[in-house]
């Protein structure tokens, strides 16, 4: 074997007796390091595959309003998904961070409207914000994650933004987490750390397929 090919593995730096918060931090570091190895070409290719898989999920296909996210560079890309949803006439809501990372939403109107307001922050739409409760308009919520396990436990970026948002959904709205294939963990052997505030997701989508959880 030759060249700069980096094998894809599933990091699991969780040790017996570790506090959940420390185990989450160790996992976040390992998964972010792994994500940073993916080239721009592979990320663009993956974004198309994510769009194919996510758009095929019945709840997404049938939704009038989808709340999702505008990806940062190394997150599972959503550009093609956003365009596909908008072109079939679905309303698409994206997170807007208020002061102190307050939870707000605004409508996606096209790629040219998405701007990174500060380095490292997710791109945001520029239109009017709709308020925290706009999440109740969503028929389905497509959330970013660093990892998901077979019970539906989700590891996010660590701000607790989505754990707070997901307490306010309309009953019956489904939550789908998006991760790269190696970021789906089998809870029987590699459970993700879980804390009482963590909200389980209903399904996970990768570049390859999706499945209902648990
Ligand atoms: N694409 C995307 N949007 C999302 C999330 C996410 O995980 N991904 N969130 C999930 O919760 C919420 C907010 N997430 C945030 C993520 C980072 C920072 C942040 O403070 N970034 C640092 C820079 C960090 C870096 O350089 O990597 C900063 O602004 O100083 C804020 C909010 C809502 N929108
Ligand atoms: N419903 C909530 N109410 C108050 N605080 C919360 C709530 N959910 C999470 N938090 C706080 O947010 C912090 C981060 O939580 P956690 O590590 O679970 O984030 P995450 O789910 O990985 O991140 P994110 O949701 O932003 O992607 C924790 O300190 C937690 O106490």
Automatic annotation (TrEMBL):
Substrate binds at residue 75. It catalyses: (6S)-5-formyl-5,6,7,8-tetrahydrofolate + ATP = (6R)-5,10-methenyltetrahydrofolate + ADP + phosphate. InterPro entries: FTHF_cligase, FTHF_cligase-like_sf, NagB/RpiA_transferase-like. ATP binds at residues 24-28, 154-162. Its EC number is 6.3.3.2. It is an enzyme of class 6 (ligase). It comes from the Bacteria. GO terms for molecular function: 5-formyltetrahydrofolate cyclo-ligase activity; ATP binding; metal ion binding. This is 5-formyltetrahydrofolate cyclo-ligase. It comes from Antribacter soli.
